[in-house]
Design brief:
alpha/beta, globular, 125 residues, six-stranded mixed beta sheet, 4 helices, two-stranded parallel ribbon, 38% helix, Transcription Regulator spoIIAA
């Protein structure tokens, strides 16, 4: 499966997991959030996947973008593991997940292997 890339992130599918890695110093506003979601959905071609999302490259996300990603960002996802850089982003994201209450299993990790193990239970054969 090919790697796809836009201005904000790179994404690919490996072992039936969609890997989504934000580029360094990425700033996300509502326009960017819409592009990110649209590109991911086009890439998935109506197939649902567990998603490994590495957000360590994100520099800033405005509130409208966060709200859009919370609503639309979970389309065609079975579960999401979010890889963060400790400690500040972890605390902020924990709070955000409690407030936004995503409708799919979502968990925050600082360890890549643990994040992938979490997603393995959501892989379809």
């Amino acid at each position: 499966m090919p790697n796809i890339e836009n201005e904000y992130a790179k994404f690919w599918i490996d072992r039936n997991i969609l890997f989504f890695v934000y580029k360094p110093n990425t700033i996300i506003d509502l326009k960017a959030a819409k592009i990110i979601v649209a590109d991911r959905l086009k890439f998935q071609n109506e197939r649902s996947f567990p998603v490994f999302c590495d957000i360590r490259g994100i520099k800033d996300v405005d509130k409208t973008a966060r709200d859009y990603l919370a609503r639309e960002g979970s389309t065609l996802t079975r579960a999401v593991s979010i890889l963060v850089a400790p400690p500040v982003s972890h605390v902020i994201l924990e709070f955000y997940l409690k407030v936004s209450k995503p409708n799919i299993p979502s968990k925050i990790f600082t360890d890549r292997q643990k994040a992938l193990r979490f997603l393995e239970t959501f892989i379809s054969p």
